[in-house]
Amino acid sequence: MDNHDRYLHGRVDPGVDSNISLVEQVERPERPRNQFLSPPRGENSGSNDHPAPVPTHPYKSPFFSLPSELVHQILSYLGPIDLASASSSCRLLDGLAKSDLCWQKHVQETVPGVELTSPHPFQSYRDLYIAHDPHWFLAKYKIWFCDYFLTGKIIICRFDPRRGCIEGYRLVAERPPPTFDPWEADDEVLIHSFAPTCRMHLDQPVVHLDAMSRESRMNATRPGPPSTARRFTAERPMCIPDHTRNGVFSNFLLARPVEAQPNMSVWPPETIPARSRVRNASQEASVGARHQPEKRSQASEQHFRIRRWMEMTNGPNVPGVHLGEEVHTYATLDPVLYTPTEDKPYRGIWVGDYSGHGCEFLLMNQPDDEVPFDESSVIQREDESPEEWQARKKEERVYRGKLEAIKLTGDPNVPRGEYTFVADDISRRGYVRTATEARFKGARVVRSRGHIAARMFRHDKYIESQLIMISHNRMAQYWVGFGHISFYERVDIEQFLSPMNDPPPKPVKVGDSAHL
Q: Is the dihedral of CA 475, 478, 479, 484 positive or negative?
């Protein structure tokens, strides 16, 4: 998002398109081809569209002679669809499989950050689960980013137990006006201050699925396993509150994965590893019959779409005219990509400073190493104490491999889904120095390549840069040709998952009472 703050640069101003040619180009990083992640164990368990047939002969299984506690324990290992199938097999299992002991577990597993205490607004967790089926994946995977032209958008989806709804709000970042300080190591270089504040844009939900909507109530009260008739193909109107709608309507659509082909426009882009991808070339290609799921096994839990349009009417009961219709595709990130580990501590969602474009969100991707780290390769030196040796082994285990910063949101120059910088090797091979200046004292500095372009992503190229690894939660990028240093900070996603952590609503001014 552009702002009116004036930014200073030590050498070349990147805000002027004609200046792009003044910065020397370096070799492009190798672009990945269809990075796919393997689904975790149990991802598709219990998701069969057709349950196994139940024997009709009068043989009585020893299973029914077990104590009810053991039967409950066995049923707890079944997925929701298998549990619903078991309840339709006989009267005994019908009562046991509908127990809230089983269904509370399935609801709780899909709502990270929220501790459930009741199935409100329903009488049972089973009814609550059915009301939002098959949309629980929205809250389960929580982080979603879309293909909105150039800039993109990132939202956090979560379950609100107070109202029984699944909502998704845009994640935004704000910062105070910047200051510019000369760098001790080179007084021609300016350091841009950066103290961002991230928050949810709670004024207007992007996703709103109400458990008490007509569709949800019909699902919750329908006997037997959920029907698949038009269940996955149909668009679902979202009940966006009237005071935030402003004449804009939204429908929610499930998506169907495709096998990516060369030159096919897919989401997420190839720069981001994913278990599957969907088409996003056009409205016809995205929501046509070929790309909509017809049954549960075809519906992706990694993607969805939103159709939005403005409706012009002359009255409440007069058919309106659709204007400005658009379809946006959303994808999630595999938790492996943004969950830091002891060996890959920089993985995560970060927010970066992009001068006049404002704050942008990034995925810091540390790919797994092809060759496991061999501790025996680090030999103790004669003048090295055991503690120093252990510290060096840890350093060489952590600082190895590639670090990629991929834009989840973008700007008119370098859009969403593109690399913003790549450090090809953060080990000794890419090591430049250890910072001694007071501002970055002790930070590891490695070679990197920064990605720049003119507006509308024209004439893009990579330029020389250096990554200053201040800590596992804060880094800086020295753009050599531009003569400035900008910062990146880790975003704590967990703080946004519970509605109980939301700030209180702003008080309404007296003059705004007419809008209530």
A: positive
